[in-house]
Write a structure and sequence with these properties.
Elements: H1 5-16, H2 19-36, H3 46-64, H4 73-80, H5 88-106, H6 110-121, H7 126-133, H8 137-156, E1 159-160, E2 166-167
Helix pairs in contact: 1-2, 1-3, 2-3, 3-7, 6-8, 7-8
């Protein structure tokens, strides 16, 4: 739990958009893993096995909850932690851009949000994603391509300057 807990919590949080639900999903993951540890054929694949359980727990939660809520940037920032302090102006623009990107990711349907999260936030390869999701690599590639296309379209719904600031009447969110 100490080794993979933060990784799984971040993954669940990005998929579910809710800290409490993410914590519950991770707790369920470790309980399931405890009872089914005998099914883990290769101990070197523990992280991938746990990730697959966590993703499945997130899917189960999404089937039973209303997930039309969006995260505020403050909640995301407090969860992910801070990088070294940029200057005030740089931080302002970074926060706005991150907020819009988070909003755009959360507007994706679950399958595409899952692919984007695992690939970009968790830095899994296409092969690792296919193994953990129980699908083939071409399916993963297609989900990533469609997810990127949808993100681009969502982002372009609003006009943004080079710092990520919204301008004009069409805005995201």
């Amino acid at each position: 739990m100490e080794i993979h807990g933060d990784y799984l919590l971040r993954t669940a949080y990005l998929l579910l958009k809710d800290r409490q639900a993410a914590e519950e999903a991770v707790q369920d993951t470790f309980i399931t893993a405890y009872y089914k540890i005998g099914q883990l054929a290769e101990p070197s694949r523990l992280k991938g096995w746990l990730t697959r359980i966590a993703v499945n727990r997130c899917r189960m939660k999404l089937r039973t909850w209303d997930w039309n809520r969006l995260l505020s940037y403050a909640r995301m920032e407090s969860f992910l932690g801070d990088d070294p302090e940029p200057g005030p102006e740089e931080r302002f623009f970074l926060e706005r851009r991150t907020e819009r990107l988070t909003d755009a990711v959360h507007r994706l349907t679950y399958l595409y949000r899952e692919a984007i999260t695992l690939y970009y936030y968790n830095e899994l390869t296409v092969r690792e994603m296919a193994e953990q999701l129980g699908t083939n690599e071409n399916t993963v590639k297609a989900r990533l391509a469609r997810g990127r296309s949808m993100l681009k379209r969502i982002w372009e719904e609003g006009d943004h300057d080079e710092q990520g600031q919204r301008v004009g009447k069409n805005t995201i969110g």
